[in-house]
Amino acid sequence: MIGISACLIGEAVRYDGGHKQQTQLKQLVDNGEAIAICPEVLGGLSVPREPSEMINGDGVSVWSGQSQVATQSGKDVTQAFKQGAQDALKILQQHDIDTVILKEGSPSCGSTEVYDGQFNGTKRQGVGVTTALFEQHGIRVYNEHNWHTTFHK
Ligand code: SF4
């Protein structure tokens, strides 16, 4: 059993009310081989919601208290992002899951790059808030681009 970002299996939970379904990943959930998680919804954020980015850092620095997550209009949503990550981790632990496939680029789920906090489409290397927590707990995090070549069920 693995975990997959809910938006990658077609659940309309993204900030814009849409999804980014990948048919092969949805198939894994339909076959009972994976469960879907959306940390931002678990953290109590609405669908749709204002886009958020990490200011001055990435998920690792959010957990160390050096960065915040904020919406485009400047609302601090750090606590909701952290709560959602912790709730998602609990779900993985309840299912004995140590491998996930998460949506690249997201301030929660990104695993190699995230937006840089200026809301102008620029990315920087880094991980999302949920990915950082998962990796701190030994969970292997892949994304929709690299799971084909590296993922072992
Ligand atoms: S990228 Fe992660 S937090 Fe964002 S909608 Fe998809 S599952 Fe939810």
Automatic annotation (TrEMBL):
It comes from the Bacteria. InterPro entries: 2-thiour_desulf (IPR007553). This is Uncharacterized conserved protein. It comes from Staphylococcus microti.
